[in-house]
Amino acid sequence: MTYHYHDESIIKTLAEDTIFVFGSNLAGQHTEGAAKTALEHFGALNKVGRGWSGQSFAIPTMNEHLQQMPLSQIQHYIDDFKIYTKNHPKMRYFITSLGCGTAGYKIEEIAPMFKGISHNVIFPASFRPFVEKALAKLTPHFLHAIFNDTVILNTEENNELIQHLALTDAEKSVAKIILNTQIYPADSNGRDRVFEIQDILYALQEKTFNLAHESEDPLVFGGAILALLELYNINEKDFIDVWQGQKEITPPRPAHRAKK
Predict the structure, then answer these.
(1) pTM, entire model
(2) How far apart, in Å, are the Cα atoms of 203 and each of 29, 89, 184?
(3) How far is CA 229 from CA 66, 128, 180, in A?
């Protein structure tokens, strides 16, 4: 069974049994984007920044000071929403690309949080690669395709470059997650990851690829590797073994990003 999807166009009406789900702030100020639509057309209430009201459901992605929430906190609210949809199976939920507008996150960071939700939801079409498909197996071909100068160092064009790589759709989805996850110099929760990245680069030195690039370029490589290690819950030795063709790694099940 697969999920249903919408084309992400602006809507003003939904069937009576369908709830409009939007990203909010804990102050309940619904002034922009989908939040404004929820206020004007789906019964959202000012000063109510979380949960059900009218024909809408607010999932906080910004705090009461209108600042971006850490991904770990957003995950908490999304997990609560998962329970809500399971406990109200007769309703349907029209989910907007919450967190990806004013809050400033990317689809690759938010969409995977919804994996495993009940099937009475309607997702944005852009969420599809991240909620339906399991993580791809890690193979030498995949690692060699991703970890090179052309892909890693062209951060503004990496999504377009990925589309032209000889990878499966599942592998391309994983590549987008890895390359768009904020790690260096600090992650999306504001944690300094430089020392971790340096440790990874030291462990991989002379065992994988040549990191003799410009002064800070190796840290860009290391940040992407750290994102992959956390996504698959593996260590540097696992990465080296796959890179050298000694093994392939099946992703953890269920696939998640709990450490992000």
Answers:
(1) 0.58
(2) 48, 49, 18
(3) 32, 23, 14
Which amino acid belongs to residue 169? D
Q: 109: closest CA among 74, 77, 79? A: 74
- Distance, first Cα to last Cα, the chain: 28
Q: Residues 6 or more apart from 83 whose CB is under 8 A from it?
A: none
Name the strand (E) or helix (H) holding 37. Answer: helix 33-41
CA 137 to chain centre: 18
**Under a CB-based contact definition with an 8 Å cutoff, are residues 78 and 112 in contact?**
no
Q: How far is CA 67 from CA 34, 35, 102, 103, in A?
A: 17, 15, 9, 8
Give, for all 260 residues of the chain, the pLDDT tens digit: 478 988 888 899 999 999 999 999 999 999 999 999 999 999 999 999 999 999 999 999 999 999 999 999 999 999 999 999 999 999 999 999 999 989 999 887 899 899 889 999 999 888 877 787 667 899 999 999 998 878 887 766 777 888 888 998 888 878 887 887 778 888 766 778 899 999 999 999 878 876 654 445 788 889 999 989 988 889 999 999 999 999 999 986 543 333 33
On whether the CB atoms of residues 132 and 3 are closer than 8 A, the answer is: yes
Please choose, from the candidates 194, 179, 185, the residue with its C-alpha nearest in 3D space to the C-alpha of residue 231.
179
Q: Which residue carries 């999304």 as its tokens?
A: 78
- What CA–CA distance (Å, rounded) separates 120 from 130? 17
* CA–CA dist 50, 59 (Å, integer): 6
Q: Are strands 121-124 and 92-95 parallel, antiparallel or unpaired?
A: parallel
